[in-house]
Structures are given as structure tokens and as C-alpha cells.
Design a protein that fits this description.
Helix 9 packs parallel to helix 14. It is built from 14 helices and 17 strands. Helices cover about 40% and strands about 25% of the residues. Bound molecules: adenosine-5'-triphosphate and magnesium ion.
């Protein structure tokens, strides 16, 4: 059983809105064990929608369309499905009466074009839409099934989850496609691939690495008769990946680096403070995004400008002598905030993410990360490439990663 998704709307092609519904539908299809083989986006043009649908129908068992079910002249999905399935449109009287009543009751003037929403291909069944005027459609002909869903989120989401998903589950039969993501830090994508090469040829589960900013995600995907069976296929592969990569695997699925670190510190009853310059509070933001972090993460300072570094941390002479982007400054920042907040650990980040070298002559991308533990202070010098945001995100990643490494090393 294969499927394709067709998103309809010129505004999608113009980049004015982002297609968030297609990924939602892709996840639903996977959960129903239906392999989504292609996704297409097409503008509000009858011929092109028909052409796209015909191509999708020539390859897939199930086609899901998104949008273009409204009353206006650019809403052409219904018409296109009828043409692509060699069918004709008919009006469902009951729906038209319902629409007319709804308009009258809500004080809207009835415009004749609204009657288009009561039309359906003759092979179609109506999917009721309790959240809007345009109903959805499920059209079955010649062994193919086309689902048509409305575009507005408040209509799409409930229809997709509550009404279409159960039908897709039936079509998909007894199978699910289930994934688990292993999150890997401190090892590049190609090294990860090399270390787990022996697992990547398997067909069920499949293993695939994806590079993210500052980390690598390994997706293990199994196809099986139930989620539980899929998990049972995934478990031994996860163990093999962990055996190959060790502590570099810091979490699974939605566990990000900050939550892994907070969990680790909380379990050990230890605390952390930060002093940030270049990242402007980004590290603090990430650490405070974890609910219940306050036992482990105490807080910190945002000391962007040299005078503020002195005013809040008392490290003016060091900044004057060595410059704000320096090993010495990173060390002083971290030690000062740890003393002030009396924590087990402290992290500092200072660096140059600007377009040019700073006054101290440090190149763009140069970052110093200071980490204080009960055993002393270390400073890590890194050079990152990329746009400003990449440099800042990578600095945060490395800071969290280094602290995690040092914490894990301690008894
Ligand atoms: P309406 O009855 O409101 O005309 P419709 O089913 O005809 O609904 P569209 O006209 O294609 O849907 O889109 C209406 C709105 O729905 C868009 O302006 C957009 O906000 C949202 N929308 C449409 N398609 C998508 C999509 N693929 N992802 C996210 N939002 C979407
Ligand atoms: Mg519309």
C-alpha cells in the first residue's frame, strides 16, 4: 500500500505560507503503515492539479489532497479530482440545505458560489467537517482512494486525526511504520556512518543518519504489525548502535541535549550556572526550557559588553589585558559566576560571531568555552563556520556537550 500527498495552493508555491499539513499527513500515513512515496505541491490551476493527481494515481494506491475545497473560484481540488478520476460532480442536496441554513443562522449572506461546497464526485463519500463549511471527501474508484481535506488548520487537523486516520488504518491493514531517533553528539555524520556501517544495509529496521546543527540524529525505522512489535525490532539495533558509539548517544526521540544534561545533574543533585556573552542568553534559554530545571540550573548572567563583564563579574582587568574573546576571559567568566552563585559547575561562552574580526584580532567563528568543575577549570577553543546563528548554536552545543562529558567522567 503506497500513498502520495498533493498540497494545493499558489500561496504555498509563492512561499507565503509554509506547508505544515503535508508533514502531519506524512506522519499519519507512517503510523498507519502506508508508505508515502512522493509529495507534490501544485498551484490553483485546474489543468496542473489534474495532471499532478493523474501522475499520483498512476503510481500510488492512496492520494491525499490538502486545501482548495473552499467556495471561491481558485478552490479547484474537487473539480480536479472528478476529472482525474474520470468522474463527474453532483450536488448533495442535503449538504446544500445545511450550508444555506448555516449561512442564515449565522447572519451571512448566501452567495451562489457557496453551493460548490455541496458538490462531490459521484464516486465520493462526504467526510463531515464540524469546524468549517467545506466537507472533506473520500473518493473510491478502480481500486484507488483519494482523500480531500480542507486547508485551514482548525479544519484539517481534526479531520486528519479523527476521521481520515481510522480509514487509513483500515486501508493499511495490520501494519505500522515506527521510528526511534537516537541523538548523537561529538561525532560527525560521516564518522557515525562509518561506525555503524554494518547496520545500515538492513531492510527492517532501516538505520539512517541525519546531520543537525551540532549533532547527528540516527533514525531507526521498523515496519511491523504493531507498534510493540516494531519496538521489539528496534531495541536490539539501538543496543548495537550504543555499543558502537558509547556515550556519544545522549538521548532518544525528543530528549535534547539540555534535557539530557538537566536530567544528569538532577540525578546527581548537582547545580550549574552560566555566564554568556556571544550567545546572548541562548544557553540559559535552552536550560530553562526544561520543566523542573530549577533544581539543577541556578541561573547566570548575560555579559555582552566589556563594561558589563566588569560590572557583574568583576573581571575588567582580565578583559583589558587579554581581550573579551580569549581563553583568559572565558576562564574568569566561568570562575566568577560559579563563585557568585555557589554552584557545582559553571559554563562561560565568549566568542566572535560577527562579520569581521573583533578588536582583539580573533577571527569570526572563534569561540572560547570555559567550564568549571569541582576539579578545576578548563577552556575549550573552537572555530565554527556558518552564519551567525550557526556559530551561536554550535557554541551552545559544544558547551553542553563538554560539561556532560566532564560530569560523566566524575565518579
Ligand atoms: P477555505 O474554505 O478556507 O477556502 P480550502 O480548503 O479551500 O479552505 P485553501 O483555500 O487551500 O483551503 O487554504 C486556506 C488556508 O488554509 C490557507 O490560507 C492556509 O492558511 C491554510 N493552508 C492551506 N493549505 C495548507 C498547508 N498545506 N499547510 C498549512 N496551512 C495550509
Ligand atoms: Mg480556499
Amino acid at each position: 500500500m503506497t500513498a502520495e500527498i498533493v498540497s494545493v495552493g499558489t500561496e504555498l508555491l509563492l512561499g507565503q505560507i509554509i506547508d505544515t499539513h503535508a508533514p502531519t499527513m506524512a506522519r499519519i500515513l507512517a503510523e498507519c503503515g502506508i508508505a508515502c512515496k512522493h509529495r507534490a505541491t501544485v498551484g490553483d490551476n485546474l489543468d496542473r492539479i489534474v495532471e499532478t493527481l493523474r501522475q499520483a494515481l498512476s503510481r500510488a494506491d492512496v492520494v491525499v489532497t490538502i486545501g482548495g475545497l473552499g467556495p471561491t473560484s481558485d478552490d479547484l481540488t474537487r473539480d480536479a479530482i472528478a476529472v482525474a478520476m474520470d468522474d463527474t460532480l453532483e450536488t448533495v442536496e442535503e449538504i446544500e440545505q445545511k450550508l444555506r441554513r448555516w449561512f442564515a443562522q449565522n447572519g451571512y449572506q448566501w452567495v451562489e458560489s457557496n453551493a460548490r461546497q455541496a458538490q462531490k464526485p459521484t464516486c465520493a463519500e462526504i467526510i463531515p467537517n464540524p469546524n468549517g463549511t467545506a466537507p472533506g471527501l473520500v473518493c473510491r474508484k478502480n481500486g484507488k482512494t483519494v482523500f480531500a481535506l480542507p486547508g485551514p488548520r482548525g479544519e484539517f487537523d481534526p479531520m486528519a486525526y479523527d476521521q481520515v486516520k481510522p480509514m487509513l488504518e483500515t486501508l493499511g491493514g495490520q501494519s505500522v511504520i515506527h521510528s526511534r531517533v537516537l541523538r548523537v553528539i561529538g561525532v560527525g555524520e560521516s564518522s557515525v556512518e562509518e561506525k555503524i556501517q554494518h547496520l545500515m544495509d538492513a531492510e527492517n529496521p532501516t538505520v539512517a543518519p541525519y546531520a543537525q546543527t551540532g549533532e547527528v540524529h540516527l533514525r531507526i525505522t521498523a515496519k511491523s504489525n504493531s507498534k510493540e512489535e516494531a519496538e521489539a525490532l528496534i531495541d536490539p539495533v539501538e543496543q548495537q548502535v550504543r555499543a558502537a558509539l558509547g556515550d556519544a548517544v545522549y538521548g532518544t526521540d525528543l530528549t535534547d541535549l539540555e534535557s539530557a544534561l538537566i536530567q544528569l545533574l538532577t540525578a546527581r543533585g548537582e547545580t550549574l550556572a552560566v555566564a554568556e556573552s556571544m550567545t546572548g542568553g541562548g544557553l540559559g534559554k535552552r536550560l530553562t526550557s526544561i520543566e523542573g530545571a530549577s533544581n539543577a540550573f541556578r541561573g547566570g548572567v548575560l555579559v555582552y559588553n566589556a563594561q558589563v563583564k566588569d560590572a557583574l563579574l568583576g573581571i575588567g582587568p582580565i578583559v583589558d589585558e587579554f581581550g573579551p574573546v580569549s581563553e583568559e576571559c572565558a576562564k574568569a567568566m566561568a570562575e566568577s559566576i560559579r563563585n557568585k552563585l555557589n554552584t557545582t559547575y559553571a559554563i562561560s561562552i565568549t566568542g566572535n560571531a560577527g562579520a569581521t574580526s573583533d578588536t582583539g584580532g580573533k577571527p569570526r567563528g572563534r569561540v572560547y568555552i570555559g567550564i568549571v568543575t569541582p576539579h578545576g577549570t578548563s577552556v575549550h577553543e573552537s572555530s565554527f563556520r556558518g552564519i551567525r546563528d550557526d556559530i551561536r548554536t554550535r557554541a551552545e552545543q559544544v558547551a553542553l556537550m563538554r560539561l556532560r562529558e566532564l560530569v560523566l567522567k566524575q565518579a
